Structures are given as C-alpha cells and as structure tokens.
C-alpha cells in the first residue's frame, strides 16, 4: 500500500451522471488485483476532509489506474470538475480482491448499476491470465434504466455474451438481473459466480448460490473513513456470530457463504 499525490490523465463524462478518471500512478498501484480499491482525497484537504473509496476499474498499462464513478454527492461532484494535469491524493491498493476460479466449469459475472466498476477489470484479468476463455464466461448487467447501463460495449468487445435487464424495461427484460441469473444457473450450473452491486442483489445471489451449490464471491460496498481497519466503520455481520467482518480489510470481496444477510 502506498500514499502519494498523482496526476490526473483524463476525466471523461461517459453518460448521465457517470465519469471515468485516469490517474498516473507508481508500480504498486499498477500491480493491483481485481476487486481491490483506492481511497481518494483532494490535495488541499478542504471539505470533505475524509478520503472516499473507489473500486479500481482498470489498469492503464505502464501508467496507472482508471476509476469509474457516479456523481452522488459533494466529493464526486467536485471530482467530476477536475481537469487533466491536476493532482489528487491517492492511497492503495487496499483490501482483498477476487480469487481466481478453481475450475473451468463456466464463470458468471454479475453487476448491478455502478457495481460494474470492478467487474470489467476482473473479466479482462481472467481472459489475459487465460483462466477461462470468452466462451466460458457470461456477463449479466442490471440497472434501473437504459441510461444507467454501463460498460456493455466493453464486455462485448472482449467477446463475452452480455445479458441485460432494467427495472423500467427501457433496455433488455424488465426484471431484476437475478432472474436471468437463476434461470441460467438452472439450465447449466457454472463453476463460480462473481458479483458486485446493491445489497439486495447480493443477498439474492447468495441465496441462489447456496440453493444450487455454486461457489460465489461478492464485492461489497460500505461507507468507510480510513480504508485500513482502524475506524471499524465498515463492519458487516458474518455467519460466524462471534465476530464482525470489515469490508476494508476482510473484503471488499467475500465468499458469499461468510456473510449474514
């Protein structure tokens, strides 16, 4: 883990309230694994004072990392206004990432909304490391509406089949993304399910994984102040009731069987 000031390579508006920002970083951050995250803070330490967590969306070969984010408050609103060549304070890579698949029995990648952020990185990593072929992977993208669907073309360019649902039916089937996931699991059980998204989606997927005895790894989001396990603000209840787990150090990626939803 390192803390450093890094230069902004680009800050692109990619649709609706979503942006991608490229950050020029040192080797340690470039060596991050899918599922890990960084904490960002503005250099001058004006409000907001605390760092904010962001999943790593991708590695810019030889240069740095890319972050996909949505403008939802003061920090991300200000982040959307920064320009190429400006500087920001970064800490990372943090947390535990996704574990490689143990077999080649098929991989399901499931993302809900902005939860797609670490999943494109994961998909590229699996293909680059030849852990699976594109024909052995399926991607399931869910969103509230068409304008909230992210990275579909990026997954398609990797040669991956993409299944889409939206809550309002503006693109794909009008249903929860967990519906086609369960139907696909019934049809042919995969070797593993990887997922990131809202708590309700993760809870449902954990139930599907348990019902059909499919290993699953989920990336969880949480409000956190430090990112290193000091503030204990990102606690989640584990199946082992004797202790809580902390998203920043025990995760953010967990075996779904270890979490009590």
Reading off the top of the CATH hierarchy, the class of the largest domain is best stated as Alpha Beta
Question: Total helix count?
Answer: 6
Mean pLDDT, as a whole number? 93
How many domains, in number, for the residues? 2
Name given to the CATH architecture of the largest domain: 3-Layer(aba) Sandwich
- The rounded Rg comes to 18 Å
- Strand ordering within the main sheet: 4-3-7-1-2-6-5
Which blocks of ≥5 consecutive residues have pLDDT under 50? Answer: none
User: What is the strand content?
Assistant: 25-35%
CATH-defined topology of the largest domain: Rossmann fold
Distance between the termini: 30 Å
SSE ordering: EEHEEEEHEEHEHEEHEHEEEE
Number of strands: 16
Written overview of the protein:
The chain has 261 residues and is α/β, with parallel strands linked by helices. The chain folds into two domains: 93 residues, Translation factors (Elongation Factor Tu (Ef-tu), domain 3, Beta Barrel), CATH 2.40.30.10; 113 residues, Rossmann fold (3-Layer(aba) Sandwich). The protein contains six helices and 16 strands. A seven-stranded antiparallel sheet has the order 4-3-7-1-2-6-5. A seven-stranded mixed sheet has the order 11-10-9-8-12-13-16, sandwiched between helices. Strand 14 and strand 15 form a beta hairpin. Helix 5 packs parallel to helix 6. The radius of gyration is 18 Å and the shape is globular. The two termini are 30 Å apart. The model has no long low-confidence stretch (mean pLDDT 93).
């Amino acid at each position: 883990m390192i803390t450093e000031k890094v230069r902004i390579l680009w800050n692109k508006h990619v649709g609706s309230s979503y942006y991608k920002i490229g950050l020029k970083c040192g080797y340690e951050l470039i060596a991050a694994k899918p599922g890990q995250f960084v904490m960002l803070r503005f250099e001058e330490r004006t409000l907001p004072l605390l760092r904010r967590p962001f999943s790593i969306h991708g590695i810019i070969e030889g240069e740095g990392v890319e972050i996909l984010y949505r403008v939802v408050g003061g920090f991300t609103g200000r982040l959307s206004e920064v320009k190429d060549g400006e500087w920001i304070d970064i800490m990372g890579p943090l947390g535990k990432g996704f574990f490689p698949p143990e077999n080649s029995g098929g991989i399901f990648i499931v993302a809900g909304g902005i939860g797609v952020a670490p999943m494109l990185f994961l998909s590229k990593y699996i293909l680059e490391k030849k852990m699976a072929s594109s024909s052995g992977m399926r991607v399931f993208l869910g969103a509230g509406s068409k304008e909230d669907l992210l990275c579909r073309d990026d997954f398609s360019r990797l040669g991956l089949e993409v299944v889409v649902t939206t809550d309002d039916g503006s693109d794909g089937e009008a249903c929860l993304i967990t519906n086609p996931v369960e139907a696909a699991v019934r049809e042919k059980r995969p070797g593993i399910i990887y997922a990131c998204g809202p708590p309700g989606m993760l809870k449902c997927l954990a139930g599907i994984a348990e019902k059909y005895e499919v290993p699953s790894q989920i990336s969880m989001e949480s409000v956190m102040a430090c990112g290193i396990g000091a503030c204990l603000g990102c606690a989640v209840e584990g199946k082992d009731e004797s202790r809580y787990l902390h998203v920043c150090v025990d995760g953010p990626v967990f075996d779904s069987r270890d979490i009590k939803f």
